Amino acid sequence: MSGKEGEVVCVTGGSGYIGSWLVRLLLDRGYTVRATVEDLKDEKATKHLEALEGAELRLRLFQMDLLDYDSIVAAVNGASGIFHLASPVIVHQVHGPEKELLAPAIKGTKNVLRAAKELGVRRVVVTSSVSAITPCHNWPADVVKDENCWTDVDYCIKKGLWYPVSKTLAEKAAWEFAQEKGLDVVVVNPGTVMGPILPPVLNASMLMILSLLQGCTEVYEDAFMGSVHVKDVALAHILVYENTSASGRHLCVEAISHYGDFAAKVAELYPEYNVPRLPKDTQPGLLRTKNASKKLMDLGLQFIPMDQIIKDSVESLKSKGFIS
Ligand SMILES: NC(=O)c1ccc[n+]([C@@H]2O[C@H](COP(=O)([O-])OP(=O)(O)OC[C@H]3O[C@@H](n4cnc5c(N)ncnc54)[C@H](OP(=O)(O)O)[C@@H]3O)[C@@H](O)[C@H]2O)c1
Question: Any alpha helices (H) in 128-182, and if so which ranges?
């Protein structure tokens, strides 16, 4: 345990796939954690958190709705830092984008930051996404994409890609608030997050690898920029929180790669499944690189490689009974 005993932090979306890992690592480091769930009576959101080591003494759960400011204040009150992960992750079949995605993502982020400012929170780590980085079209073809690249929101609206719209506008709202009100905000932009599952339910990114193992041929042309281990994403949040020198956006991928690279590796490691052969260059024009997340590497993060991400994901899907 490191010397964080007594420091109180709040994790919004603590019940989720990434949130659960973050709560676990924070408890391991000695933090006292206030984690939010949408429904305290939902055991699928609470039981795996209550079972974590250290939870009995140092974890408290709060029912929070991103559109209910008072519920946010109750969860945040007394915390010196916030990790803001809560946001709906709906990639397909969005029927009412404003209500389902945009309002909770954008207004929710503003509500969390407003509460942080009013309650004197020291630093807020906002979980954005590579979906706020790509798809972008005004980027030089010969330059590797980095934190300066922003998603083309008009293109996404035209194509009905509401999830990237929600993440991009939420992140922009966070930066605007930070600048106007003088709040210390840092952002993590994870790629497609995979690895061991703590909650009993599947999230959208683990559903993606499950579908691939089941033979799905969908190519995530606009959504995929690289994979990243869920544990590394949780660690990245802690690193940017603890390092006062960390600032701005932090792309969080083990490498920039194509979805075709990922599918080919899954097929190689697990030939017993029906993984489709996809074209290698599934994201035409996307330049590959190993050092995409240099800012996080400079903070000490050594990314778990793609082979291990895939192995940990498939073994977890098997042990949880999602695939045999
Ligand atoms: N998974 C990825 O590949 C990936 C990649 C980049 C960025 N991200 C971002 O990382 C964050 C967590 O994603 P995840 O994959 O862990 O998703 P997840 O498992 O679906 O978790 C989402 C969390 O947000 C909470 N939430 C959703 N809508 C809410 C609302 N209206 N009010 C209060 N809480 C709400 C959920 O609470 P309940 O569980 O209680 O319903 C849950 O804790 C999100 O911001 C997502 O955009 C994810």
Answer: 153-159, 162-181
Structure tokens at 322: 């999602």
Quote the CA–CA distance of 238 and 106 in Å, as a whole number.
23
Q: Is 10 strand, coil or helix? A: strand
Predicted local distance difference test score (pLDDT) of residue 91: 86
Q: pTM of the entire structure?
A: 0.97
Structural domains of the chain ordered from first start? 8-319 (3.40.50.720)
Instruction: Please indicate whether residue 132 or residue 2 has the higher confidence score (pLDDT).
Output: 132
Mutate to test the pocket of ligand 1, among 18, 98, 134, 206 (most ligand atoms within 8 A of CB): 18
pLDDT attached to residue 313: 98
- Ligand 1 proximity of 16 Cβ (cutoff 6 Å): yes
Residue 248 pLDDT > 50: yes
**Is 190 in contact with 133 (CB distance < 8 Å)?**
no
pLDDT band at 3 (very low <50, low <70, confident <90, very high): very low
C-beta 135 within 6 A of ligand 1: no
Determine the distance from the C-alpha atom of residue 202 to the mean position of all C-alpha atoms in its chain, rounded to a whole number.
14
- Measured in angstroms, how far is the CA atom of residue 90 from the centroid of ligand 1? 9
Q: Is 89 in the pocket of ligand 1 (CB under 6 A)?
A: yes
Reported confidence tier of residue 149, pLDDT bands at 50, 70, 90: very high
Confidence at residue 128, expressed as pLDDT on a 0 to 100 scale:
98
**318: CB partners within 8 A, 6+ apart:** 324
Ligand 1 pocket check: which of 10, 40, 48, 85 to mutate, most ligand atoms within 8 Å of Cβ? 85
Rounded distance from Cα 310 to ligand 1 centre (Å): 21
Q: List the beta strands (DSSP E) in the chain.
A: 8-12, 32-37, 59-63, 81-84, 123-127, 185-190, 192-194, 227-229, 248-252
